[in-house]
Amino acid sequence: MSNNKLTTDHHDDAPHITSYVEHFGTWISLILLTFMTVFISVFGADLNTLTVATALFIASVKALVVAYYFMHLKYDPKLYKIMMLVVMALFMVFLIMLTIDYLTR
Amino acid sequence: MNASNFVEGVDFSMYLILSISVFFLVGITVVMIYFLFRYSKKNNPVATNITHNTYLEVVWTIIPTILVLIMFWYGWTGYKPMLTAPDDAMEIDAIGQMWKWSFSYPDGKVSDSLVIPIDKPVKLNLISKDVLHSLFIPAFRVKQDVVPGKDYMMWFTGQKLGTYDILCAEYCGQLHSYMLSTVSVVEQENFDNWLVSSPDTSNDHPGLTLLKNNACLSCHTRDGSRLVGPSFKNLIGRTEIIVRDGNEEEIVVDNQYIINKIKVPSSVSVVGYPSGLMTPYGEILSDDDINNIIDYISTLK
Amino acid sequence: MTDSSVSQPNFFEVKKGLFSWIFSLDHKRIGLLYLYSVGSFFLVGAALGVLMRLELFNPGADLIEAKTYNQVFTLHGVIMIFLFIIPSIPAVFGNFFLPIMLGTDDVAFPRLNLLSWWLYVLGALFALSTLVFGDGPADTGWTFYAPYSVKTGTNVSMSVLAAFILGFSSILTGLNFIVTIHRLRAPGMGFNQMPLFAWALYATSWIQLLATPIIGITLLMIVAERMLGIGLFDPSIGGDPILYQHLFWIYSHPAVYIMALPAMGIVSEIIPTFAQRTIFGYKAIAYSSLAIAFVGYFVWGHHMFTSGMSGPAAYIFSILTFFVAIPTSIKVFNWLATMYKGSINVQVPLLYAVAFIFNFLIGGLTGLVVGALAADVHLHDTYFVVGHFHYVMFGGTGFAFFGALHYWYPKIWGKMYNKLIANIAFAILFIGFNTLYFPMLILGIKGMPRRYYDYLPEFHTLNQISTVGSWILIIGLLLMIFNLFKGYFSKQKAPANPWNGITLEWQTQSPPTLYNFDKAPELVEGGPYNYPNAMKG
Amino acid sequence: MEHSFVLPNSGHTYDAKASKLGMWLFLYTELLLFGGLFIVYMVYRSLNPDAFLMASLNLNVWMGTVNTVVLLTSSMTVAMSITAIQLGNSKLSLKLLLITVFAAVVFLVIKYFEWGAKIEHGLWPGMEHFGSLSHGEQLYFYLYFFMTGLHGLHVIVGMIFIVVVMNKIKKGSINKDKNQLLENSGLYWHLVDLIWIYLFPLFYLIH
Lengths: 105, 301, 537, 207
Ligand code: HEA
Ligand code: HEA
Ligand code: CUA
Ligand SMILES: [Cu+2]
What we know:
The structure holds 4 protein chains of 4 kinds. Chain A has helices spanning 20-43, 49-70, 78-103. By secondary structure, chain A is mostly helical. Chain A has one domain. The radius of gyration of chain A is 19 Å and the shape is flat. By secondary structure, chain B is of the alpha+beta class. Chain B has 3 domains: 7-82, no CATH class; 90-196, Immunoglobulin-like (Sandwich), CATH 2.60.40; 206-297, Orthogonal Bundle (Cytochrome Bc1 Complex, Chain D, domain 2), CATH 1.10.760.10. Chain C is built from 15 helices and 1 strand; from the N terminus they run H-H-H-H-H-H-H-H-H-H-H-H-H-H-H-E. By secondary structure, chain C is an all-alpha fold. Chain C has helices at residues 18-22, 27-55, 66-102, 110-129, 148-151, 156-183, 196-228, 241-275, 282-296, 311-339, 348-371, 373-379, 383-413, 419-446, 460-489; one strand spanning 535-536. Chains in contact: A-C, A-D, B-C, C-D. At the C-D interface, helix 6, helix 7 and helix 8 of C face helix 1 and helix 6 of D. One heme-A binds at residues 43, 46-47, 49-50, 52-53, 73-74, 76-77, 80-81, 84-85, 141-142, 386, 390, 393-394, 398, 436, 450-452, 470, 473-474, 477-478 of chain C.
């Protein structure tokens, strides 16, 4: 049925199956990152303004891991990566434009 | 001479763009209509497939680009001076509230209309007591929103004697279109005289003066008709249904109720009227003022 | 397929009865459901517009009270924006023709498509319920600016929820179209062989998808503040009303391109068909849609030049605003060049397309005036802006909508309207339109603010002219509608391809069969508009 | 469906890829829905940095951490359930989904206690103690309730989605060859997780 479809946007039809081990590994790394960010925030208070940056940085790494492995983005056709990138870029530009306004008021 | 120092910049950018616009509008329309006739089915039975022409396309990308950059430039240069007031500008507080402007001068004089000396930069500190307003003087080509909780300003120099309209340009509720005032540009000496003259103390009841000055009358009438809030006529002694702490109850309006209502309007709300519109006046009106108001209201029978 | 072969039952005939319509999964029926609902709301909104014009005929209070007037323009704006113009072309003609033009039998998710329509109906009910429930329709303007929208006693929550629901309806339509375009193009039809209407819808859909949620959440914040006391924009605790405006316009500016791009797509279909030659600059038109959609995201601040936004932000928004004008002007020049050396068959749809260009030029060029910082300080929130947006929305998108109606009418119903009456109606409509809105531009330059129930005496004459224009417009519009209805009941069948078009919808019978095609459609070689009867250029 | 003739590109045939593309597009709108709130958060936090810090001290970092772990674990189990079904093991897939739903419930229960504690301390808008907070702190709590509330709503929707999917697995309509719906529910669930990944540091870890 589905192989009737046009596949201009996708090349390979055999789905990639992620192994249990890989999922488990992903989970481990996410947990580690979580503890890291909590640790930095609770015990590393002297980092001051840097804490926001590190917390957000770690969160972004986590988000990337979730998207790439759990959400399978890594094995998906390029289109999905491009779309995700565009959406993120769009949102970043919103933030940047707003920052320009609020910083220069 | 222009009415204000900004007229030139604004008008230049406006009319420049309008002229370019008229040029393109007329040009494109004429060409379009010409094509409709010249290449009609009758005059040109066989069409020609022309897919593109790179040279032409580059030209008609670059020309508009240059033109819009010019437009931006004059828009900017006309706008930029509006952002910073000169240091020697005379500062006046311009207060917007539903639906009345008032202007408060440094030495305490408060007026419903703006009076300014000619050729002297004036800076208005824009204060809103409730919602968004926008102070708009078409003749001066200035406009700036008045935002509650923010202190924005606008400035200008009146350059031509005369009286001009002040309008509210940001929608602010029922009587938005009546939130009008005027600005008079006068000679310096007339201005000085005006500033020290005491407001014409007519034989108004002091309570009425207070009601007028605080814009109470833009929401409450004195003749029993309904505006935004309940009328003041026959207010004292009236039986009403109000909501207090979420419960409806029937009360008889007395002085204490009115004092409370004026100071903390959110504490009770009258059934059938929008709650939350009236702003607290506890810090604006002294107890004496409120007593004067009540005294006046009690005369409205 | 033309009617030479044994013709199959068309999609009207397969099933009958109300339920076969309101629960139909057929994209053509859903498109028509949208047409009827969108059309009805247009009339309601238009009647409100005429009511305002009547009130403004003379200064002072004549017909309605100030508060009612405020509710009327709010409802007018909400209906026209959310119930009429945003769904108009995509949901009606996009639904009906996108699959056919791509050579497929439906959109990718037919059930989701039906859900969109139901959400639309639900949202419409919410919006209109304010007439009956609570303290009447919102009186905030369609922009719902905080803090007034939080303070007023009118039924803002309901109107705002309506906009929220309608937003989701619009998102789902957009989502459906994107997937349809990615997955269901006819074999051999690459992106660059798609009709330009499909390109326009593609760009539009991305805006619907990525901008609408922002207004959704913003409006929810207003509801939360009104109902739960969660005061995110409340200035008395340091909330920032200007932040509300930012969020509102982050959606609502891109939204104006949701309104404009499909209309441009229509014009890009009509002109080559009636010029009987290939479109000039196919790629430029196709990609400029994407460019407009993309740059359009970053110019929202031009609605806020006088709001107290910072100077540097204002400069950036202003210059970006000007940059959006460039892809738009590229389109205009390409359309013009498409008429060059065509063999032009002047018919009603083409007249609407030409009127679109004229009106849209006025609208777009006045847009440039308000895009300039200095000029906008004077013109912001005046009738100049009202004139600007009616020119682009009504004169542009509205006229394109009427044009599409006349263009595809024979395909949808298999009938033809009276062409003479259609021409007369067009002429009246065009004259009425310009009489109605041109004076507004002058009023604005003279300084008359918008959302004014009452005005100063110096604005009297122009307001009267404008109101008279609205009467002319009524006549034209009623004549047009009458003519379309009459055509529907005429006995004569229209040929399957009356305009000699070559995009795929002209290959099927009129009205199309349930599954659109009963034989694989044949793509035109050398691009969708490569007219075989034209000379090589 | 009595097509006399079926187009090769028919919209009426099952198309896993279309369904996946559609799901992703929907996730983008969800991301931007929360995006609007993140914008508000960014602006108010940058305007009231100290008040946000003060207010965040009312939150229990450990509860937040536990909830993060719970959500991450549930994310892993849905991901694994997809692997299971792709390998043809519906039973295992169902079990893994059950764990996911269970984790979702745990998450909500913890959230319930957190909110309950806030309300007990009078930190709900309109309560007396709330009025005595500084403006910035009030904004913080408005945002806290609004954002975690909306997120909680998404958890509930995701749960329902997964339960529906479980039913279909039981009935066999989701199976080794046709499992896009399961994958979609997984994608949705990961999104819920993704948003929490940002909510957690933004509300709990301000120090
Ligand atoms: C269909 C809807 C639509 C479209 C397409 C547009 C298109 C544009 N709009 Fe408009 N606009 C609205 C709908 C629309 N607008 C609405 C509804 C409002 C008011 C909302 C409210 O407050 O209620 C508004 C308000 C509005 C404002 C805010 C005004 C104010 O409140 O102060 C501004 C300011 O910059 C603006 C600018 C523009 C510009 C630059 C374009 C450009 O995209 C136009 C580009 C087109 C052209 C330029 C014409 C073609 C060009 C040529 C033929 C070539 C020659 C050109 C050059 C030399 C460059 N618009
Ligand atoms: C697609 C969008 C669209 C369309 C088509 C229109 C169409 C019309 N609008 Fe529009 N208008 C808006 C969108 C639109 N409007 C928006 C967004 C606002 C801003 C709101 C706000 O400020 O918040 C606005 C604001 C607005 C104002 C400004 C109000 C103010 O600021 O105070 C005015 C004033 O004249 C006006 C008038 C009209 C008129 C006369 C029509 C007419 O052109 C309508 C055409 C229709 C007819 C001529 C009649 C058709 C025939 C019938 C209805 C049958 C007859 C009916 C009976 C017998 C019952 N509109
Ligand atoms: Cu004040 Cu409008
Ligand atoms: Cu805009």
